[in-house]
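The aim of this short unit is practical: by the end, you should be able to scan a pair of folded records and say something sensible about each. We start with the first protein, listed as its amino acid sequence and then its structure tokens.
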Amino acid sequence: MSATAELRRTVAELHRELTRYELVSWTAGNVSARVPDQDLMVIKPSGVSYDELGPHAMVVTDLHGKLVEGELAPSSDTAAHAYVYRHMPHVGGVVHTHSPYATAWAARGEPIPCVLTMIADEFGGDIPVGPFALIGDDSIGQGIVETLRASRSPAVLMRNHGPFTIGATARAAVKAAVLLEDVARTVHFARQLGSPDVIEQQHVDRLYERYQNVYGQ
């Protein structure tokens, strides 16, 4: 099986994780993956039901969003994903959702503070807010890159829009999207009860280092 064929299958399967964790509604949201050693990516087509997103429906574009394989039009967020891949070579996967709690923080234009060990583990500190940008060109991608270059976080809350997450693989980016929504919800609840305590930076650094380099198999 070719690299693009394998990634089309993987990316199709990962879209089911977005619905499983209730991160998307209707046809919104998308997952993409960089094709290793090629200036190509696999991404969801625009406006297609999640029930129809098998491997055959995935499309392949170059890193400027030009269609290379597939019969359907690429996602409306393709330019943003492509910009990230062009400017962040370590990124192998990008995810965009409108998950409710994370998007609520994006609507307020407020970073999610590092008040939970899970935030320190996965995001390395506060989850940052990116600038407002319109869909249609690579403006959103520029905002993602500018924000995440200055942060350890694999997630950014694009102002008045919603979250984007990145990862070394598409699966890692999906994981970040799932955990982002979880902590966004929990911190929202904590705010209703009072003022949650921010974790000291020295502890954030230790938690992040352990989780990134020691935790797991």
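Turning to the second protein, read its sequence before its tokens, just as you did above.
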Amino acid sequence: MTEPLFTIPLWADLLGVGLGGVQGAMFASGFQGQRRLDWLGVAIIGIMIGMGGGLIRDILLGLQPASLQSNWYLLTATGAALFGMLLAGLFNRLNKVIVVLDAVVIGMFGAFGTSKAIALGIPEVPAVFIGVCAAVGGGVLRDMLMGLPTAIMHVGSLYAVAAGAGCTFIAVANSFGMPITLAAVIGIVITAIIRVLAVSFDVSLPEQRRLYRRRVATETGIIPIVRVEN
């Protein structure tokens, strides 16, 4: 595959890795009981969140992962994870900060994935898919390592939907001539806003079983149907 016409600046990529490392460490530090982690475990989770999205993005694009071509990626992810772990007590009392940080990380990985795919000549729809995979990839790896149900597969606060909206904007805006850098910045903002609003107002997609709830209730009479009378 040829080199892209647009490359993600190193500082921007490292910023995403660092924020992801902090967010991952804060997530892991909050577990109690049988899932308590030691420092190494927390650091590993932080590193996987920080680097997982970029690894998945470059693998899908058929490129050598950028995070393995420089010392700074692993050093940044490790340092950020330790920082997040040491300050977890403070951050865990600031729920709004954690929510916003998580939303920004999702937006950045999604925007970087979509932008890099478009720059390599990938069509818009696959480019959006790659961006969403990059956005949620770190979280999927985290859940797998910790033996947790994969969050993206269950009812939640528009995790992948927020990333999809931001990535779709980038692809559409760029197809209409907007510079990819500007489109990526706006895409990050869109993703972050949707994610924060979804968490704040507890918005999620309907459960699959609700599609058939009314029909089953009618056929079996087990689940009551409430009729509103004017």
